[in-house]
Amino acid sequence: MTKQKALREQLRNFLEQEKLDDRQYASIRNMMKEEGDEDRKANTRSRQKKWGAIAASVLIIVTSTFLVSRFIHPAVDDREVAFQIAEEVATNHIKIRTLDLETSSMEQVQYFFDRLDFVPIYTSLADPEELVLKGGRYCTLQGKIAAQLVFGTQGGETVTYYQAAYDRERFGVLPIMDRDMEPMVVKRRGVEIKIWVENDVAMAQARTIAY
Amino acid sequence: MIFSRKILDNLCRYCLALTGQREDAEDLLHTALESYLYKKTGNVKRPVAYVRRIARNRYFDRLRRMNVVQFERLEDPESYSGLEESLEQMIVDKLTIERVWQSLNSAEREVVYLWAVEEMSASEIALHLNLPRGTVLSRLYRLRKRVAGKFSSKISGDNHD
Question: Is residue B48 within 8 angstroms of chain A, CB to CB?
Fold first, then answer.
């Protein structure tokens, strides 16, 4: 017979065996850290607002030149952010959590996801002939609130889409579909991820790679 | 606010007590933390209790949507006189605890978690969960009953020690 102890102590020991593993902890910590950074940035912006008018004109000239060069040659750190986005998307695609809303109606999705800074849309990459909407849930991308939309195909494949308000500081420079740029394609853990910006919304598509 | 790992582990255990499944618990914890972060709750005095409440509400809302309703008899708290004291005096082994835990439903697991890990009394649990004290006592009573039942059947069937 195993060692006997008081019921409460035995229960506590049993329950305290459970804990987050390193991956789960890292995922939650990153989510919370990004949200803290967002709040600090908002406070800083409001304090500096009164000096913005003077600096803006100079900044526009410098920044426009800088941005043109960055679109042609994305900086290494922008690609690194895209890889981080791909990693997040792959994780969310491989393990799809319980949907907040189960529906085949995009109208219902648009009505339901009222915490976003934008209205979720059918992206031009989603072929309505191929894909059937199953529903969606809130998630985060690089700490920014986002929507995960889950689609199915007739062949039983699951395709997931991710939409978040585009924030260049957070997401880096991404291909803009409205300017006829091709999405960035990244493969992670058996998942092909496409990343782009469309109508000021950062988007990603994830499909399991068929071998 | 960034929660320490210890607090996150406690929240994970609480979600596990509710759901009974590790994957569901991770899902619930993640969702509750996301909800907390995006409510911009700068003036919440007890954020840990707040996140626990979010998790609890989401979990039981989901059960209600799935039409999973757990009915309980309304009990007179007086009929459980001495229950908490008897629970404190019970001695059990680890194997019995594992088996008893598996047999509890989510409402019972939640109360047992708060009693054992958060070391709350029945009155404190009732206040925390906004439940009648009799309901909390009836769940603790079922714990005692199951422990006594499993432990005695283990002893009667186990003649090797």
Answer: no
| CA distance readout (Å), A60 to A54, A55, A80, A138, B114 | 11, 9, 26, 35, 57
Contact criterion met (CB < 8 Å) for B95 and A97: no
> What does the alpha-carbon distance between residue B10 and residue B1 come to, in Å, rounded to a whole number?
16
Contacts (Cβ under 8 Å, ≥6 apart) of B149:
none
Under an 8 A CB cutoff, do B116 and A145 touch? Answer: no
- Residue A95 vs residue A40, higher pLDDT: A95
Nearest to A113 by CA among A167, A162, A172, A151: A162
Query: Which residues in chain B are contacts of A2 at CB distance < 8 A?
Result: 93-95
Mean pLDDT across A67-94: 74
Work out the mean pLDDT of chain A and round it to a whole number.
82
In the predicted structure, residue A47 carries a pLDDT above the cut 60? yes
Sheet order of strands, A131-141 included: A101-102, A131-141, A144-153, A158-165, A201-208, A191-198, A184-188
**pLDDT category, B17, cuts 50, 70, 90?**
very high
Helix (H) or strand (E) holding A150: strand A144-153
Beta bridge mates, A206: A160, A193
The alpha carbon of residue A103 is apart from the nearest alpha carbon of chain B, in Å, by 15
A96 at interface of B, judged by CB pairs closer than 8 A:
no
DSSP B134: H
Q: Closest partner residue to A12 among B16, B117, B158, by Cβ?
A: B117
Q: How many CB pairs under 8 A join A and B?
A: 107
Cβ of B90: how many Cβ atoms within 10 Å?
Answer: 18
